[in-house]
C-alpha cells in the first residue's frame, strides 16, 4: 500500500438529526422520545435541548458550503423518523421528505457523498407510548416500513446506508443505566431490546436487498476494544469474558447472526439471556450475510481486570468535564474496567488511544471478513473562542493519530471504506449539553445568530483530504 489513502477513500464527517437540526415543531414533525425527555427536570445537562440546536434545518446550505470548502468527500447525517412519519407509521409528511431531498441534492451538487443513517435514537413518542418502543417486537415491522419509505424516496441518490447508529449504546443508556429515555435500569431488558434491534437491522437489510437498490448498507456499532490489565490469569480471563459479553456479543448477532456461545450461556445461567427463536436465527443469519459493511464508532479503548462476584457494578459517566473523575465500572463476576496508565485521558475521562483503533479494525476485519466504515471518531473538549479563532491543537493531534492508525490497519489488510469524524460542526451532546464540543466549526450558542467559525482543525482536515492523509502518515 502507498503512503496515501486510496483515491476513492471517503474522508467525511458526521452529525445526527436531533443534535443539529432544531425546528422541532416545524413542517408537521411529530414528537420523538427526545423532544419529551429533555422537558423532564434533571434529565439533561442544565436543561439543554435540541429545539434549536445548530439550526441546521434552516442553515444546511451554509453548512454544506463549508463542507465543500473543506473538500469533504462524505457527510453522514441521520433522518428524523418523525419528520417523515409524524405518528411513527402511516401518514407520510411530504415536507419532511422535501427537506432531506434538498439536503441530499445540495450535497451531491457539491460533490459530497451522502451517508444516510436511518435511526439515530429519536424514536417516535407515539410508538413508545403504544407498545414500549424497542421493548416490543412490534417495532420491527414499523421500523422496516419506515426504512422502505426512505429507500423509495432516496434510493436512487444515496449509495451508503447505515440502518442503526450505536444500538448497543441507546439500549444500554436507555434500559440499563437510565441516562437516556425511557430511563430504566434492567439488565435483562437491555439484552432483550438489543436483540430486537438486531432483528430490526436484519429485516431492513433484507428489505433493501429485495428492493434491488444500488448501494451499500450496514449498521454502526460503538466498539471499545479491551486490554488485560496484567498477565495474571484472572485479568486475562476478565478480558475474554468482556469480549464474549460485550465486544463479540454486540457484533456477532449483527454480523454472524448468533451470539457467542459462552456469553449466551452465562447470561442464560443468570436468567437474563434474550429469547432467540429458530425464526430469529434464520433472519439474523440472512441479515448478517447480506450486510455490505460493518460500521463502527470508535472513541476509546478499555483496560480490563478481574471483578469478583461481589465486585464493582456499572457506574455513571463523568458528565462534568472535570478531568480525573475516572470511575471503575464493570459487571460482577465478568470484568472490571480500570484506569489505563499507558494512555492520556480527555476532560471527560475517555482514554485517548489511537492504536486501539488499529486493534479494533484488525480484529473486526479478521473475525467478520467484511469491509469496515468508521462512522464516528473524535474528541470532545472545552474549545475556547479567542478573537474569532479556536486553536484546537489537541483535536488535530487526536485526529492525526487516529487517521494514521487507519492507514496502518489497511496495511495489515483491513478493507476500510471511509472515515467520518464526529462531528462537522459543534452540536448538542446528549449527556453534556453544548459545553462538550467535537466539531471543526465552532458555533457560538450564546449568540442568537449562531455564527459558524472555522477552528484550526478545519484547515488541518482540509489538508488531510487534499493530500489523502499524507500529512498524517509521514
UniProtKB/TrEMBL annotation:
Residues spanning the signal sequence: none
Cellular component, GO, one term: cytosol
Positions of transmembrane segments: none
UniProt superkingdom: Bacteria
Pfam families in alphabetical order: Glyco_hydro_1
UniProt similarity note: Belongs to the glycosyl hydrolase 1 family.
Protein name as it appears in the record: Glycoside hydrolase family 1 protein
Organism classification: Bacteria, Bacillati, Bacillota, Clostridia, Eubacteriales
